[in-house]
Amino acid sequence: MNRIAALGLPESYLTTLAEANYDAGRIPVIDRLIARVYHEKKAQCVSYILSRNGKAFYCDASGKLTYEEDSPEMQVTSIRGIASVTKVFVAVAILKLIEDGVLELSQHVAGLLPEFNTPMHGSITIFQLLTHTSGIRGDVGSYFEPYPGFTKMYEDSDNDNWLKQVLAGPLESKPGTQASYCSSGFNILCEVITKATGVHYEQYIHDNILAPLDMQDTFFDVPEEKKSRICYTNQWEKEHCQNSGTRTSTRPRGSGGLYSTLADLYKFGSMLVNRGELNGVRILGRIAVENMCRNHLVNIPYISWGSTEKDMKYGLGLPLNTNCLVSDCTYEHEGSGRCALVMDMKERFVAAYFMPLICEFCPEACVHMKNVIWSGIK
Fold this sequence. Notes:
By secondary structure, this protein is α+β, with helices and mostly antiparallel strands. It has 11 helices and 11 strands. Mean pLDDT is about 90; it is low at about 150-155.
């Protein structure tokens, strides 16, 4: 059932399936996929939104908001942690600073953060952090070679020495020669934003991205009056979101700290698909977005979570989707939990969805949902 009216968006943000040139006959196929996910007890709830040419035309939600027995239903306006999709917001902030002449892609991080002023880290650039090619150790579990003390560093990384701990071990590879998924790199980029601007990175992202796009339900710390709308799947998530706003750690949350909604993700994704502008509000210039959304890696191997690709395709802060039936200009970022923001630059099409899992892995969330959604594009 199309619940687009429940979003409360202005008419200028909305269109119809017909005007979006989307095959209405594929909506029941999406419904059947979601029904199978529930039948196989893989997800607690599912919600999604579809848009084209900057206008949303379909959204729906089903399942339970929380894991508790008395949980209300998931709504299209529910709030959910977007995990690593946060990285795309950090990347946009970095590109905005490059546009403004404050930073540059080839800039050495050591010029801003003295912790990088070592023979091992001195050559690492902002570009390499954006593309996961810095050589800094990848996420726990993504790489299986021994790294003394790294697991403990990751567990203890909420303390004030987090950056020194991240840089304490040997590099995984020479900077610029290999890609390995490194969330720490985006926390470092947050420190770069703060250092370069004199404005805390969270405030910078709010003032230059969230507020201009009227993203009223996207936060690093969810306000108390909106916490009842948060979707969570276990006790840890519940405590984490309910304690939002009381955090004392100095470790940045650029690797995965934002909460958001379908409507807000649609706005953000549509801004990028529209080459930096949405409804008269410009966040980035067209050239910056086109640079963000093109492949920047050539013959760079990717090694993470047991997977090895000989030639990784990656933009500035988000990968090119090559594993699904989407157009050849489709970029995305997924978040653990599970969520995704997928942007087709050629078709000017955006999909965002939440599929909070109650199983370890679900191909429906990672691959099938995209294949089915994109099959409706005419």
